[in-house]
């Protein structure tokens, strides 16, 4: 695979430190020689990510996977805070694609029509997951009324949960 400056470069370091590697599109090749110093084995990349995540795990108390997941406060940066939190709940795996779309569209419609949100934590997290997926496909961040809606989802989640949801996070879609 390839990344500017190679496996030890600043770009890949920043991708891994920030978690951006989860959404970054990398060039890959199946075979043949590495074209230049920017290319490295996928196994090297996997080793770097695993080491970084192992280093980030708490050393005492709860294990990393059992730790509560903090909900970012309304107004937090879209990336990485909101994107990473939204992806801790895999709506498609939990509800199926059609139901996730219905939950996402129904929740935003209720909010737009009457500024109401459900009391169901799973529905709120699924709606947030769906907004993340929607805006990822648009390759933009939500603004205006839609960003207000995302912040309202976060605020409602904080009210219902006290500010965290149980871990572990779902596998990233």
Q: Over all CA atoms, what is the radius of gyration?
A: 18 Å
Shape: elongated
Total separate domains? 2
Helix content: 40-55%
Helix and strand run = HHEHHHHHE
Strand order of the biggest β-sheet? 1-2
Secondary structure class reads mainly alpha
Quick rundown:
By secondary structure, the protein is mostly helical.
Word description of this protein:
The chain folds into 2 domains: 10-56, no CATH class; 64-165, no CATH class. Helix content is 53%, strand content 2%. The protein is built from 7 helices and 2 strands. A two-stranded antiparallel sheet has the order 1-2. Helix 5 crosses helix 6 (121-138) and helix 6 runs antiparallel to helix 7 (144-161). The longest helix has 18 residues, at 97-114. The radius of gyration is 18 Å and the shape is elongated. The two termini are 21 Å apart. The model is unreliable at 57-63 (pLDDT under 50).
Features:
single chain, mainly alpha, two-stranded antiparallel sheet
Describe the SSE topology.
Blueprint: H1 10-18, H2 42-56, E1 69-70, H3 78-86, H4 91-95, H5 97-114, H6 121-138, H7 144-161, E2 164-165
Antiparallel strand pairs: 1-2
Helix pairs in contact: 5-6, 6-7
